[in-house]
Every structure is written in C-alpha cells, then in structure tokens.
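Worked problem 6 (solution included).
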Amino acid sequence: MTATTDTILSAHAREEVDRWLARYPDDQKQSAVLAALREVQHENGGYLTTPLMDAVAAYLEMPTIAVYEVASFYSMFELEPVGRHSVSVCTNVSCMLRGSDDILAHIVNKLGIEVGQSTPDGRIYLKREEECLAACCGAPMMQVDHVYYEDLTPARVDEILDGLE
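Solution. The predicted structure is:
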C-alpha cells in the first residue's frame, strides 16, 4: 500500500476490500477487484474516477489497465457522474414481449431524458439498456438501486419513481 492509496481509499473501503481479500489466496488479490470497485464507487456517489481505479490497482497489486478493463466492461460501473438513483429497465426478449419497450418509453417521457442520461436535478440516472437482469418470470421489470421491481405497469413505475428522493 502506498501513501496515495491511503489517502484516496477510505479506511472503510480498505476494510471492505480486506474482508474480500481474506476469501482468496494471497497470490489471487485480483479476485477482489469487483468488490473493491463496487465499494469505492458507492463511496464516491455512484461513479469511479481514474485516481480511485489507480488506488484500487495499487491496493490489489494489479496493473492499472486491468482495473480499467474491469470497470469499463461491467455495466454496474459508471465512469462519469450520474444521478443518485440508478434505474435499469430490462429489454431482453422476455421483458420485451411483456411490454418493456413501452415501460422504457414511459420513463423516458416522464423524466424528459434519454437512456444514458441523468435528470437535471441529479435525482435519477436512466442507465443504458440492460441485456438481461435475470428476472424473466416477473417481466417487464426494472432495477432501481439494486432493488428489483417486477410486473411493471406505467402506474407502478410512476409510484416507484415518484417515491425516490
């Protein structure tokens, strides 16, 4: 660990990463990269910065490019500031057949933003389309801040979104 890593990663983040590191052999520290990125993103208001990713790489003794690859590959990581609440609408086949395109259009119209944008007040971020959120039996569905909402209707979507602070 370097002085830079100490100042960029909070004590809590280092504790969380250490908790994950305890699950893996000492020579497999990179196995904790998803958990580490998830934690620092959460602490940073929902997105990753280059200094944070560099600090994670140093802490896990990984090449920085490997951490950048992970952060840019997985849709759960954001590389730019986004709204406080993350909304993902599944548009895969099961959800599409049960009306997800209409649900997504309703949200776009209601919020006045396009997919991949945040509301001007920074309250809601409408993530790019998700390939599959693995809840086909509850289609159409969406995920809001890691909570699944299923069997959606426009009225139910309004209720959920209006309840977000």
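Discussion: Helices lie at 3-8, 11-21, 33-43, 50-60, 64-73, 93-97, 100-111, 154-162.
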